């Protein structure tokens, strides 16, 4: 059982009972515990504000390369994950996660390769130690160009 103490602090009195598996006797424990709660802002919102196809030389044209310009609100992220899926966003084709360093303003460019033309669902997740936020978009990659 738990009952609040008569003090005005956040301590609570606790009395617990356990069965001892060896002898069938009971163990009683009495004491106080104190707990604190820290409220952090976290990453509140992520937006993909631009998607740009990067023109490569003919010798590098095996894959289509797209830059995603992303902004966020709230605390600054420490890592980014990009999930590339089929157009229904149901079947994952690749997952790439990287640590990032954002100093003043949450504005970053994420570069990803696409091996073949097609329509893809992109999920970009920004995270830190206490929170995560996600933005999604559909992208059509057509032989080195994206729309």
UniProtKB/TrEMBL annotation:
GO terms for cellular component: plasma membrane. GO terms for molecular function: integrin binding. It holds the Pfam family PKAT_KLD. Residues 71-121 form the PKAT KLD domain. GO terms for biological process: cell adhesion. It comes from the Eukaryota. InterPro entries: PKAT, PKAT_KLD. PANTHER family: MELANOCYTE PROTEIN PMEL 17-RELATED, TRANSMEMBRANE GLYCOPROTEIN NMB. This is QNR71 protein. It comes from Pandion haliaetus. The gene is Qnr71.
């Amino acid at each position: 059982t738990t009952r609040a103490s008569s003090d005005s602090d956040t301590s609570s009195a606790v009395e617990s009972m356990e069965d001892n598996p060896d002898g069938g006797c009971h163990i009683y424990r009495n004491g106080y515990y104190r707990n604190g709660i820290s409220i952090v802002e976290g990453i509140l919102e992520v937006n993909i504000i631009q998607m740009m196809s990067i023109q490569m030389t003919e010798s590098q044209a095996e894959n289509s390369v797209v830059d995603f310009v992303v902004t966020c609100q709230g605390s600054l992220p420490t890592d980014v994950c990009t999930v590339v899926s089929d157009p229904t966003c149901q079947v994952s084709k690749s997952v790439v996660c990287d640590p990032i360093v954002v100093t003043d303003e949450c504005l970053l460019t994420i570069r990803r390769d696409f091996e073949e033309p097609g329509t893809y669902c992109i999920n970009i997740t920004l995270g830190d130690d206490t929170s995560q936020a996600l933005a999604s978009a559909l992208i059509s990659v057509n032989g080195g160009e994206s729309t």
